[in-house]
Specification:
alpha/beta, 7 helices, Rossmann fold, 6-stranded parallel β-sheet
């Protein structure tokens, strides 16, 4: 510590390996929240989320899909609005999340961004997204693009989430779903399975440990009110 004169020793902690071990009391199914970014009657971001939900359930997850219909624009209604309360409750309930948006004008939709903007870094003393896992996906009307998933990654990091390495971008999404709104077999479908499988693995690895994983030296210093 003599080489670190700027460190406040009372707040500096070496790694506690015991806190990285699996904890008891987390035998329940991983809780995954899925968000989509379009209100069209045949929304391909919703269809892709529904396909992801089926895969996650088969992998052993408990899933809930948030319907953004009726969610007001950020700050255009009080926080007590039922849809806002529903969304925030699901954020706190979840241990992992899937975000999927169409690409519109080279970016995610306002519907997708509004959902995330309604969830601040903290609600009271609770941070509803910090330490949770996140998988990002996008659907395209034309050729394959990665604009949306790159933006979602930035947002996920801003919300202090553990954003997994894998991702899914589905080009010409209207060609990838059949008349029953099920995704056709393809390499794109296989990638969705890959992403959901990876999300489950990361969620199982980090849940029960997230409080320790996001415990920060700087925040311990800030919280110390002693002179």
């Amino acid at each position: 510590m003599s080489d670190l004169p700027n460190i406040k020793k009372q707040h500096f902690q070496t790694i506690d390996h015991n806190k990285l071990h699996a904890k008891e009391g987390h035998a329940h199914k991983p809780r995954i929240l899925l968000l989509y970014g379009s209100l069209r009657e045949r929304s391909f971001s919703r269809l892709l989320v529904e396909e992801a939900e089926r895969i996650l359930i088969a992998l052993g997850a408990e899933c809930k899909v948030f319907n953004p219909s009726g969610l007001p624009l950020p700050n255009d209604a009080p926080e007590s609005h039922p849809k806002v309360q529903e969304l925030r409750g699901l954020m706190q309930w979840s241990e992992g999340q899937v975000w999927c948006s169409p690409e519109r004008h080279g970016a995610m939709t306002g519907i997708m961004k509004a959902q995330i903007d309604w969830v601040p870094l903290s609600v009271g003393s609770i941070r509803p997204t910090q330490g949770k896992t996140l998988a990002v996906m996008q659907v395209n009307g034309g050729s394959q693009s990665f604009n949306v998933i790159n933006q979602l990654r930035v947002l996920g990091r801003w919300m202090r989430m553990v954003t997994i390495p894998n991702q899914s971008s589905v080009p010409k999404a209207y060609e990838e779903f059949d008349d029953n709104n099920r995704m056709k077999p393809s390499n794109y479908y296989n990638r969705v399975v890959d992403v959901m499988e990876e999300l489950m693995k990361f969620t199982l690895l980090t849940r029960g440990r997230s409080d320790y994983l996001v415990d920060r030296y700087s925040e311990r210093v800030e919280a110390d009110k002693t002179p």
